[in-house]
Amino acid sequence: MKGITGIGKRLISMFLVMVVSSLMLLTSPAIAANSVILNQENAKTEVLQSDKPVVLILVSKYTLEIFKTSLEDLKSKAEKVFDDKYKIAIGYWEDGLEISYGIPNLLKFPPATAVTVFKSGERKELGFITDPTLTTQVLEGLKSDFEKS
Q1: Residues 69-118: pLDDT tens digits?
Q2: CATH number, domain 31-148
Q3: Which of 74, 97, 146, 83 is nearest to 117 (CA)?
Q4: pTM metric for this prediction
Q5: Nearest to 142 by CA among 113, 102, 101, 99
């Protein structure tokens, strides 16, 4: 009987440790403050009025569907390339965000993913992801170009 009770206590302890660890990740200020999903209400302020440089990523829902990827995957790749000195802002072309009107796009199908680096409300660098397998290379190139300028 002692053996079963001991195993039960250990399992409960492990479960509680996992829950607490997960909650710590969710509430981490670096993760929460480093990225934002854009909508009509926050797009302009999050990009143009940020104290950090902003990496604006505009992607089409069709592109995500065709290449079998997700907004979260794209955001995760951007967060790995850009450190906490940058804010990652992601939105959909289809949402007609006011901030997207000043961002050119390539005329192709599926629509290219535009990646724009803003600093103090001004567009500094622009690149396009046309092949999802090259996402990291495009992001690293933009970061390098931005930091050199």
Answers
A1: 999 999 999 999 998 999 999 999 999 999 998 899 888 888 999 999 99
A2: 3.40.30.10
A3: 146
A4: 0.76
A5: 113
